[in-house]
Specification:
heterodimer; A: mainly alpha; B: mainly alpha; 81% helix; 0% strand
Chain lengths: 175, 88
């Protein structure tokens, strides 16, 4: 039960959410901005003295910074409740008892580490998705390539950032 | 020599990419107060709310299904191992 609870709050919740959001929203950001780039809408914004970063990217960034922690909390809750359902089916442990055990085994620091990770992952997903969009050059096929590239690069960077954070927190706890 | 050139060129490209990401990150961070409610521009905040719906509300079913499946699988695997060792 500890493994499911701590594993979800610290690791699986943030990373599962980040991978789903990067494949869903990261590719959408890249395709949207890429289409704006190839149809010269971004150039039109610059001509009107509107900063494309402020107009196109910042609403996505703010939205992602608010929604990623919410989705991460929900993801951890769903995962822990699914573990509780399995425990009820196999060992007939009541949900109230399972939840009491879970609340005793999770620290506030576990939840905060998961939320901090989700904010870093949100930053990576938005920046990579928008960067790939702004770098799009060519026609419709380039938009598809940039969307694919956004998903691949953001998934890779999310996993690398997760490994980095896990190593840092491990070292901080150890010493 | 060509291999070294290819590796060097790739490394330089990746460093330029990371540098571009960092510059874009700071630009986005500097511009983010313009999107916040009350102190920012109204249209930008509405755009942010639309993005929140697209990211959060529309993404929730997929995140939920994946988390439930992962939680069930994790508990099942750990449970079967614990049973094998007589701990459950």
């Amino acid at each position: 039960m500890d493994t499911v609870a701590i594993g979800f709050t610290r690791e699986l919740g943030p990373i599962l959410t980040a991978l789903v959001v990067s494949s869903r929203s990261g590719s959408a950001f890249s395709a949207e901005i890429g289409t704006m780039e190839v149809t010269s809408e971004i150039d039109a914004l610059r001509t009107m003295a509107i900063d494309p970063i402020e107009f196109v990217m910042t609403p996505k960034y703010v939205a992602m910074m608010i929604m990623m922690p919410c989705l991460t909390i929900l993801s951890s809750t769903f995962g822990i409740l699914a573990g509780g359902a399995f425990m009820y089916i196999t060992t007939k442990i009541r949900l109230s008892m399972y939840l009491r055990y879970i609340f005793n085994s999770i620290d506030l620091s576990d939840v905060l580490i998961g939320l901090l990770k989700s904010l870093v992952f949100a930053t990576i997903i938005v920046n990579v998705g928008c960067m790939e969009g702004f770098r799009t050059q060519g026609g419709a096929d380039a938009v598809g390539r940039s969307a694919t590239s956004a998903v691949v690069r953001s998934a890779l960077l999310v996993i690398l950032a997760d490994a980095f954070f896990t190593a840092i927190f491990y070292l901080v706890k150890k010493y | 020599m060509k291999v070294l050139e290819a590796i060097g060129s790739r490394v330089l490209d990746d460093l330029a990419y990371v540098g571009g990401l960092t510059i874009q990150f700071w630009s986005g961070l500097r511009a983010s107060p313009h999107v916040l409610p009350f102190m920012g521009k109204r249209g930008r905040w509405l755009a942010a709310i639309r993005q929140m719906v697209a990211i959060g509300v529309e993404g929730l079913p997929m995140v939920g299904i994946m988390s439930v499946a992962a939680g069930f699988i994790l508990a099942m695997q750990i449970g079967s191992e614990l049973k094998r060792w007589g701990a459950l």
